[in-house]
Design goal:
Layout (H helix, E strand, L loop, with lengths): L6 H43 L2 H8 L10 H16 L5
Helix pairs in contact: 2-3
Length: 90
């Protein structure tokens, strides 16, 4: 006569399978989320880099017409800080 597995073996096997499936789902979701974050950051860096040629030209000092008012000086300073924060070269 063939002996059957006790009922608790089946219950443990089912619970372990559910735990493994849940863990795998959570791990995969975290992986996909990280990939999405990295891809979004790269898209943002590319979009920021498109402004670099304009910012480099605009940030060059113009000896023929230096900033004269405090507003012009502040605008010039802000433009320079934007160029630096985006990592645009000179």
């Amino acid at each position: 006569m063939r002996r059957l597995m006790p009922m608790w073996y089946s219950v443990v096997a089912i619970v372990v399978c559910f735990i493994l499936l849940a863990g795998g789902g959570i791990a995969y979701t975290k992986y996909v989320q990280q990939q999405t974050i990295e891809r979004t950051e790269q898209i943002q860096r590319d979009a920021d880099a498109r402004w670099c040629p304009i910012l480099i030209i605009a940030d060059r000092p113009n000896p023929a017409r230096p900033p004269q008012t405090p507003d012009e000086q502040e605008a010039r300073r802000q433009l320079h800080m934007l160029r630096v924060s985006l990592g645009c070269g000179s």
